[in-house]
C-alpha cells in the first residue's frame, strides 16, 4: 500500500489527490496504468450483541425475592400482634 498523504489536500468533506505520471508502464505519457481507488478495511467490525435481560432481570429478581419472603413467613406460622 502506498502512502499518498503528501499528495493530498483535505478541505471539509472534499479530498483532492494529485497524481503524477511515471507509473508501471514506465512511460511519462499522461496515462496512468496503475489501478487506484478508495480503500476500506477488509474486516468490517460488527456491532456487539447485548447480553440481553433488559427489564426482565430486575423484575424476575423482585418476584423471586417476594416469593421467598412469603414462603418463609408461611413456614413460621400465623403472625400475632405484639401489643
Strand order of the largest sheet: 1-2
Count, helices: 1
Structural class: alpha+beta
- Which whole number gives the mean pLDDT? 75
Q: Strand fraction band?
A: 5-15%
Low-confidence stretches: none
Total strands: the figure is 2
**General shape:** rod-shaped
Report the helical percentage. 25-40%
How are helices and strands ordered from N to C?
EEH
Radius of gyration: 35 Å
The end-to-end span amounts to 87 Å
Q: Summarize the biggest pleated sheet.
A: 2 strands, antiparallel
Short recap of the structure:
25% of the residues lie in helices and 10% in strands.
Give a description of the structure.
The protein is of the alpha+beta class. Helix content is 25%, strand content 10%. The chain is built from 1 helix and 2 strands, in the order E-E-H. The protein has one helix at 56-76, and strands at residues 8-11, 14-17. Strands 1-2 form a two-stranded antiparallel sheet. The protein is rod-shaped, with a radius of gyration of 35 Å. The model has no long low-confidence stretch (mean pLDDT 75).
Summarize the SSE layout with pairings.
Elements: E1 8-11, E2 14-17, H1 56-76
Antiparallel strand pairs: 1-2
Descriptive labels:
two-stranded antiparallel ribbon; 1 helix; 2 strands; rod-shaped
